[in-house]
Fold this sequence. Notes:
Blueprint: H1 18-23, H2 28-36, H3 39-49, H4 61-66, E1 76-81, H5 91-97, H6 99-113, E2 117-122, H7 127-142, E3 147-150, E4 155-163, H8 173-180, E5 204-208, H9 209-213, H10 215-221, H11 223-227, E6 237-244, E7 250-255, E8 258-259, H12 260-267, E9 277-281, E10 290-291, E11 298-299, H13 301-306, E12 315-320, H14 325-339, H15 345-363, H16 370-381, H17 389-403, H18 405-414, H19 418-430
Parallel strand pairs: 1-2, 1-5, 2-4, 6-12
Antiparallel strand pairs: 3-4, 6-7, 8-11, 9-10, 9-12
Helix pairs in contact: 2-6, 3-6, 5-7, 14-15, 14-17, 15-16, 15-17, 16-17
Bound molecules: flavin mononucleotide and iron/sulfur cluster.
The site of iron/sulfur cluster (SF4) has 14 residues, from helix 15 and helix 17.
Amino acid sequence: xxxxxLLRHEDVANLRELDVxxxxxxxxxxxxxxxxxxxEDIIEEVKASGLRGRGGAGFPTGMKWGFxxxxxxxRYLCVNADESEPGTFKDRQILEHNPHLLLESMVLAAYxxxxxxxxxxxxxxxxxxxxILEEAVREAVAGGHLGExxxxxxxxxxxxxxxxxxxxxxxxxxxxxxxxxxxxxxxxVKPPFPAVYGVFGAPTIVNNVETLCCVRPILERGAQxxxxxxxxxxxxxxxxxxxxxxxxxxxxxxxxxxxxxxxxYDHCGGIPGGKKLKAVIPGGSSVPIFxxxxxxxxxxFDSIAAxxxxxxxxxxxxxxxxxxxxxxxxxIARFYRHESCGQCTPCxxxxxxxxxxxxxxxxxxxxxxxxxxxxxxxxxxxxNTVCVLADAAAMPTKSFVTKFRSEFEEHLQHGGCPQxxxxxxxASAHA
Length: 431
Ligand SMILES: Cc1cc2nc3c(=O)[nH]c(=O)nc-3n(C[C@H](O)[C@H](O)[C@H](O)COP(=O)(O)O)c2cc1C
Ligand code: SF4
């Protein structure tokens, strides 16, 4: 797929500006759909396209929209632009360079679900993105693409850009809703799901930025066209974020289901310095890791799950042969300990235990049972909490220990990181 759909700004200069976006065909789909089509028909088309959520879980978008209760006319649309999963930096590209694609897709989604108020919950640290979005909203309102009586059709949509509260948990959809309501981002027990009980208790659709940005192309070119890209059960264009030990890290737009080996070696130029590949986290820090022997897998929801990991947010982190897996897991453990909201005991205590055990293994002081203890703590965290942050900390732990156990044992026997003590010895010899 050479044509860029989501990263079209890479082909069209200044696409962020309204007049450039409009002269490139922007808002023509919104105009046509609002004038000619019925909302129910749009939901059916999105269902037929097979679009699945790009925020992490891969839930079918049209089906989610269809869950809104028919008897409550008050409803909200919430764009999840919190993008905080380590290794993930795709939504930011759209927010900063192609904001009108998001706004036009929001008009279409809001029309489909009959909603008149939408929020863009943007990661607190994305100051630049928030400024760009606010300007884009102003321009779109002035141009008649947003606000009251859009295109004279009688359809109104008010869009509010809301800066996030600066925590990873604000990206979990119910934590996001609490935060939007002005409270601490404690995730809610589900059910009820946001489609039934969301923002201010009203039915709410929460969708990721990339998910929503597929809506305009689907309605512009049709569900059947969308289904021709990638595998039948999770079709469409996909943004892959690749970081770590590759020649050309970055965000790549390729068909869903692109092969992981091809992504690393063909698109990203392979591993620098002729080094060997050691491991890859395919979908952001929350998902199980693959060893170098496991990368002949297609990057779509079902193929990655069948291979024992998850597509998640598609944050692909590549590690070369020099990477210490104990150190890598310690960094991941620190993140989840810091980001646990503390509401559930298995997560609050478990993430602390995981980090302490990892510190002992890397710095010395661990005892013989600690590698097994890591696995036990992780097992006890999974499936026992209000949201899946606990699982997000446990899953990488279990896969790192299972697949690289000898490295963990080596740290134990050595009383700390062998790589680090060798480096320290070399440094003191040269001092
Ligand atoms: C701890 C945690 C953090 C999350 N962070 C994000 C995020 O930053 N962005 C996002 O779109 N989804 C995030 N999600 C997933 C959302 O809860 C939700 O599934 C998603 O916004 C739904 O949109 P989609 O159907 O378009 O994928 C997170 C989930 C969890 C458990
Ligand atoms: S699992 Fe962790 S982050 Fe999620 S609600 Fe419980 S304590 Fe908070």
